[in-house]
Amino acid sequence: MEASPEYTEWGGQLVLVRRRPPPPPGLGEALKAGLRRSCACSLQGTWAQLQALFPAVHWLRQYRPREALVGDVMSGLVIGIILVPQAIAYSLLAGLQPIYSLYTSFFANLIYFLMGTSRHVSVGIFSLLCLMVGQVVDRELLLAGFDPAQDGLEPGANRSSLNGSAAALVLGLQDCARDCYAIRVATALTLVAGLYQVLMGILGLGFVSAYLSQPLLDGFAMGASVTILTSQLRHLLGVRVPRHQGPGLVVSTWLSLLRSAGQANLCDVLTSAVCLAVLLAAKELSDRFRHRLRVPLPAELLVIVVATIVSHLGQFHERFGSSVAGNIPTGFMAPRVPDAGLMWRVALDAASLALVGSAFSISLAEMFARSHGYAVRANQELLAVGCCNVLPAFFQGFATSAALAKSLVKTATGCHTQLSSVVSAAVVLMVLLVLAPLFRDLQRSVLACVIVISLRGALRKVRDVPRLWRLSPADALVWVATAATCVLVSTEAGLLAGVLFSLLSLAGRTRHPRTALLARAGGSSFYGDPAEFEGLAPEPGVQVFRFTGPLYYANKDFFLQSLYSLTGLDVGYAVARRKERGPGEGAGEGDPVGGRDPGSGSGAASLVPAVTHFHAVVIDCAPLLFLDVAGLATLQELHRDYGALGISLLLACCNPSVTDTLRRGGFLGEDQGDVAEDGQLFPSVHCAVQAARARHQELAAANSIL
């Protein structure tokens, strides 16, 4: 970059001189340079790439056991103890057997330990993703001829009405029972979602999840939690109702529950009431005394252990028909490639699953990184979470992401690094190899209680809506629209509605940004909005206009209307009338602002004065983030029209992006040193006003001489 003089004298004052940027490289040179960087191979570069892909390789070499080991082991044990009952319970949401949730938790902890950049996030099964997986599994089971309302352990539940038919041969069901087909659907869905996330990470699309705003995610969590609560009521009551699909799932399920309420299993109802009371009391005590408790109370584990013992001794399944978890095998199953045909069928469902999982994982990783003073890489987080889905899909695992509740517990129990995830995986492994069969007589109503209690945090978010409305009505509308659509239509529709409402709110804010004519504070160089500051006086003969937003195709008309209304001159209409009347006549007293007649009833129908009271217009471009083609054309038309009336149009405080757009669009000269550019762009509003006054004085002096 060529150096330029630091300052230049102009009018007795020091002004800034722009530097000349280097010429941009051609397309061929840029491609060659990129290929050289990507194809360059060295030992140091390979090691750096390995560390970037597996951050554990880097931080393990710097690990300090004396400072971090105790905290990591303690947090890992606590998370493992919490994870086991939640994994078994969340299998109900996904419509799968409990063993698959344990597989998922084991592999996800190990993979994120190697690839994650967050030190505190806990990755594993997540209730919202389990719900989304379960909805897809139920739909595919129904299409395959199975009854999704039946549990796999019940007689006849593992038989399809299509077995032996042509449809069964097409779907490949002749040797596959209900549970087998359900996990095939789940693994195919998980693999596609993981591939989406890995591809997003490779392409550097980690920023995409940032477009899912916090109000959208909170509203989605609230709506999905209501759906989860509704889906678990049948287990809490011990009734058999059809598992509805499609729009209106929540409403249809509630109607079915009301019709079947008289068939409730008394044993399940009493068990649910007792477990809910105990879990709620334990959670309230934990929240109240959380500062005194070194380790949170493992209420879920205690309830599950006691409930399993009572159910086994009381023979609740045999005597009262209470639904139980059933046989949970030990060990690992042989890896299996997910079904390619099913992957095509669920490709669209996997997109929303990948987006939700990515958004929650990245937002949680960034939240904990900010609170603990380190940085995470969004693209690497996508790769890590994607691999937590891709690899377990070959070992009968299903979708995972970061979970807030377990991450908070992990932080509270002294976690320092992701070594705690290895400890949690070891706890899950012990259950997989030894303890899993002990949960055979665990009632499903108890598992449903664990799920319902885990929704407390999401359901409580409804209390934030009044505060959110006071802060930003647009964000509150996004929250309500997302939650309502999730409940009344479906979770996928809720996510789509949230994205659309977020984009509309963003467009609405940029569609009508705030505008003002600035005035000067005494003899200083400060220019502000008179509606915001007192004691400001307008600059004689110069109108300083501020537009606090980007100038693009959607708000260019509002930009012009605001400028014309505040300055009192519709320059486009004035130029047109001048052409009609002839070059010797100015704007008449009946010329309306905005090209509308005063009798049209518009509030903008101010009259254009016969002689304008200003000779220059300065646009404060500091809030102008960017220009598109329509915005550039608007400025070009303004420059031409103002010039036809002898009024100068000057731009102040343009950022480099806006300046580059103006130059490439022909608004300025191609060379930065052009007189045209130096006479139109200024580093501050005060410089532009001073230049306009000096130019006007020169013209006035020249006219007086003539």
UniProtKB/TrEMBL annotation:
This is STAS domain-containing protein. CDD domains: STAS_SulP_like_sulfate_transporter. The chain crosses the membrane at residues 69-90, 188-212, 262-281, 293-313, 342-362, 382-405, 417-435, 479-504. GO terms for molecular function: secondary active sulfate transmembrane transporter activity. It comes from Bos mutus. It holds the Pfam family STAS. Residues 540-692 form the STAS domain. NCBIfam families: sulP (TIGR00815). Residues 580-602 are annotated as: Disordered. Residues 584-602 have a biased composition (Gly residues). It is a multi-pass membrane protein. InterPro entries: S04_transporter_CS (IPR018045), SLC26A/SulP_dom (IPR011547), SLC26A/SulP_fam (IPR001902), STAS_dom (IPR002645), STAS_dom_sf (IPR036513). Keywords: Membrane, Transmembrane, Transmembrane helix, Transport. It is found in: Membrane. One of its GO terms (cellular component) is membrane.
